[in-house]
UniProtKB/TrEMBL annotation:
Protein name: DUF3267 domain-containing protein
TM region positions: 21-43, 49-76, 106-128, 134-153
Leader sequence segment: none
Entry keyword set: Membrane, Transmembrane, Transmembrane helix
Any Pfam family matching the protein: DUF3267
Keyword flag Cell division: no
Amino acid sequence: MHCWKTINVKKQYGFDRLFMISALFGIAVFMASYIGLAIVYATPLSDQYFLLFILALLAIYPLHKILHFLPLIGCYKSLKLIIRKQMKICPAILLHINEPVPKTRFLLSLAAPFLIMNTAIVTMSTLMPAYGHYFAMLLAYHSGLCLTDIIYLRNLARSPKYALIEETDTGFEILVPPVVS
């Protein structure tokens, strides 16, 4: 195997820039979803269940990480869970993969939280339009969390079909098998 390319979005963009782009992306998603729901549903909004909204907001990040893990269940022996403090107060949960994973499985692992959670949030907002503002905020927050995954997806989608993805200290390495003559 040889390394086709190494991708490290955090080093390429920097934490501050990623945070700003993620926040702007979240605001754009909130505006689009809130305005869309307001146009489609003329239901008056309710502020009931605010505590439930706060609990859902706190649960999004751990659920997001769990959904990253599900497609990698077959590789559970090579996964390592790391919990760090980000900005001195926020816990950051990192999943580190110790051995190469097929590209399709890795892409599925990156896309799973975005597809599953955002679909669930949008579905619930259509079923309960009186709480559309809560769901718009949850969707915006989760979409902002998914921005780094989306950037990685975009970069990895252009890699060779049968590549393996390995996580190292320098980022994600895209490994391709040697060409046999």
